[in-house]
Design brief:
Layout: E1 2-3, E2 6-7, H1 11-17, H2 21-26, H3 35-56, H4 62-73, H5 75-84, H6 95-99, H7 106-124, H8 126-136, H9 138-146, H10 154-166, E3 171-178, E4 185-192, E5 195-202, H11 205-233
Helix pairs in contact: 1-7, 3-4, 3-7, 3-8, 5-7, 5-11, 7-8, 10-11
Length: 234
């Protein structure tokens, strides 16, 4: 198995990295899911990217480096990396996840990408993982050197996009509200017509709406990437 220049010596590790717990739970035999590799990949990803940011931004303080790191490893960013590497169709999901369009779920795709990073670390060591990460993030790292990170909130960005594309405004609906009064947890969905574009959770409705908009923007970006790939094959 070769992925963005990296050749797996043990392809089984890649298979585990793309095995969601829903698939493992439904399997009639014991199957290892990707959660341990995801934990490792998250740590290695942070280490490699922070070290690279310190190298290319030698005058940045801790706050600026933290902001850039967060931009690189946010769910949207990792989801796009997974989509560009065509991981979606290879992820092993349970029937319920497949039915709920799990292959387009940003959190699931981002987690799979982190698990793949963990698998590469186990398979080839630190230097190989570093090379894979820097190759995969090459374009966005170059953008950081020439562009300012956007600070406009996700609800505003999604509303502008939808009104431009669909000529309607997105609608946010409360899906659930749980927990005691001092620890409320809200789940909100954002809809365009009857289609749900994203879902988010938070301790306030405003936070949940921002999370839903963030997921919706990621879905839009995934659709763009897939459309471009289809057009390039025609």
């Amino acid at each position: 198995m070769k992925l963005n220049g990296y050749q797996f010596k043990n392809p089984d590790l890649y298979e585990v990295a793309l095995t969601h717990r829903s698939f493992a739970n439904e399997s009639k035999k014991w199957v290892v899911n990707n959660e341990r590799l995801e934990l490792l990949g998250d740590a290695v990803l942070d280490l490699v990217l922070v070290a690279e940011l310190m190298r290319i931004f030698p005058e940045d303080d801790e706050g600026s480096l933290t902001q850039k790191r967060a931009y690189l490893v946010r769910t949207e960013s990792l989801t796009l990396r997974a989509t560009e590497l065509e991981m979606s169709e290879s992820i092993k999901l349970g029937k319920g996840e497949i039915a709920s369009d799990g292959r387009q779920n940003p959190r699931l795709l981002a987690s799979a990408f982190e698990a793949v990073v963990g698998a590469i670390y186990f398979d080839g060591g630190y230097e190989a993982t570093q090379e894979f990460i820097l190759t995969t993030f090459k374009e966005v790292l170059e953008q950081l050197q020439t562009e300012t990170i956007e600070t406009e909130d996700d609800k505003s960005k999604f509303q502008i996009h939808i009104q431009k594309e669909k000529k309607v405004a997105p609608v946010y609906k409360l899906i659930s509200e749980e927990g005691p009064a001092h620890l409320r947890q809200f789940k909100v969905g954002v809809y365009v017509g009857e289609e749900q574009f994203g879902e988010g959770e938070g301790k306030t409705k405003k936070i949940a709406e921002q999370e839903a908009a963030k997921m919706a923007l990621t879905k839009v970006e995934i659709q763009k990437v897939e459309k471009q790939k289809l057009e390039s094959k025609e």
